[in-house]
Amino acid sequence: MEFRVKRAPRIDTEITVPGDKSISHRAVIIAALSNGVCTLRGFLSSDDCMRTVNALRALGIRIEQPDPDTLVVHGKKRVLAPPKGEIDCGNSATTMRLLAGLLAGQTFESRLVGDAALLRRPMDRIVTPLREMGAAIVAEGPEQTPPIRIHGGSLRGLHYKSPVASAQVKGAVLLAGLFARGKTTFEEPVATRNHTELMLNYFLIRTVKENDTSVSIFGDQTPESRDFDIPGDISSAAFWLVAAAAQPGGHLLVRNVGLNDTRTAALGVLVRMGAQVREAVEDVVQLEPRGIVEVTGAPLKGTVIQGKEIPQLIDELPVLAIAGALASGTTIIREAHELRVKETDRLAAIAHNLRIMGAQVLEMNDGLEIHGPTPLRGARVPSFGDHRIAMAFAVAGLFADGDTLVQDADCVRESYPEFASTLEEFTSQKRMRTSTPVIGSLAARLGEE
Ligand code: S3P
Question: In Å, what is the CA distance from 421 to each residue of 172, 240, 292?
Answer without folding.
Answer: 34, 13, 21
